[in-house]
Amino acid sequence: MNPLLSRLQPYPFERLRRLFAGVTPNPDLRPISLGIGEPKHATPQMLKDALAAALDTGLTGYPATAGEPALRQACAAWMQRRYGVPVDAATQVLPVNGSREALFSFAQTVLDASKPGATLAFPNPFYQIYEGAALLGGAQPFYVPSVPARNFAVDWDSVPDEVWARTQLIFVCSPGNPTGAVMPLDEWQKLFELSDRHGFVIASDECYSEIYFRDEPPLGGLEAAVKLGRPDFKNLMMFTSLSKRSNVPGLRSGFVAGDAALIKSFLLYRTYHGGAMSPAVQAASVAAWGDEEHVIDNRRQYREKFAAVTPMLAEVLDVALPDAAFYLWAGVPASFEGKVAGLSADEAFARELLAQYNVTVLPGSYLARASGGTNPGAGRVRMALVAEPAECLEAAERIVRFCREQSR
């Protein structure tokens, strides 16, 4: 077996199952899960209709890894509408089977483990695919801390020069998972300058870009490049998906766009990897990328939920409305530290909340790694407000009661 497999860490939800082993949730309350970021809003009918219509003819041949021209053009047209960024559909766009698969395989395309100290850097806390991609690519992960006092901005200045010198790839996530923080233009400029100096590639994970709570939509990586006079997108690739935007995580459809040279190499890798998208999925994806009405309605639903739930939880937890995404990144009361032997405060909070109120949240320490002696997720929990409004409100009410009872 590949010895690098032994370096992989347990996935957060595996750790959560272990944490909850032996816990009997309150049987008088129906279970509500805020633990997994799986969209629950209805899938748009027009998308389902497009998928169904394509099934008759879409399964009889092998699809091209590069995707159909109609899909690449739909993706490029969306980039122009959403960001005002022109991309060449033939050379700067590539369909992928969801951003998760693409982020992982892109790292395998870029990383050169034959070079001593090959490093992949990414924010801490993070989406665990970043770490797995580094480890299975034979690289060293470098965990860059987020700063709560700066709205969880990633502290790129804390990365030593010797680490930048051996970095081959960085993952950025904006809007961030789990914090919801959006990277501003000056932060992009800093990363572009570092990339020019050290030669590393920037992979920008933007799968939450269409769920936001401010008037201004989140800045995208390619958009930032154009604003800063980098229309060739040198050493830059953005990743996006229909999963959150269009409520179709089971469709496994997204695309990457950026540096044409990177696209060419990634396409070569994917041709051998078997990364072609089903023609039926491509047809549904064309319909989805071409429609904004369902996206606007989806965003409205999230805004209404967060407007109702966030003030309630802010009475008992350290939490505020994020810039974007569908998570609340909440600090738990200090009284939970040391409450249960052998557990961190966020673990104790999650375990006791399940037992007493049958609500599942994810301990923040499971989404981060200790770096410099500190786990930046410790003392926080991630809550995914993906369910229907009534269910999210009921979960919030239970959490408020739980916290108030614990403080007596």
Automatic annotation (TrEMBL):
* Gene Ontology MF terms: L,L-diaminopimelate aminotransferase activity; pyridoxal phosphate binding; succinyldiaminopimelate transaminase activity
Gene name tied to this protein = dapL
One family from Pfam that matches here is Aminotran_1_2
Q: InterPro entries from the entry?
A: Aminotransferase_I/II_large, DapC_beta/gammaproteobac, LL-DAP_aminotransferase, PyrdxlP-dep_Trfase, PyrdxlP-dep_Trfase_major, PyrdxlP-dep_Trfase_small
Give any single GO term for biological process. Answer: lysine biosynthetic process via diaminopimelate
Name assigned to this protein: LL-diaminopimelate aminotransferase
Q: What class of enzyme is it?
A: transferase
Asked if Transferase is a keyword of the record, the answer is yes
Which branch of life, at top level?
Bacteria
Q: Which CDD domains match?
A: AAT_like
Q: Which residues form the Aminotransferase class I/classII large domain?
A: 32-399
Which cofactors does the annotated protein need, by name? pyridoxal 5'-phosphate
Q: Which Gene3D superfamilies match?
A: Aspartate Aminotransferase, domain 1, Type I PLP-dependent aspartate aminotransferase-like (Major domain)
- EC number(s) on file: 2.6.1.83
Task: Provide the alphabetized UniProt keywords.
Answer: Aminotransferase, Transferase
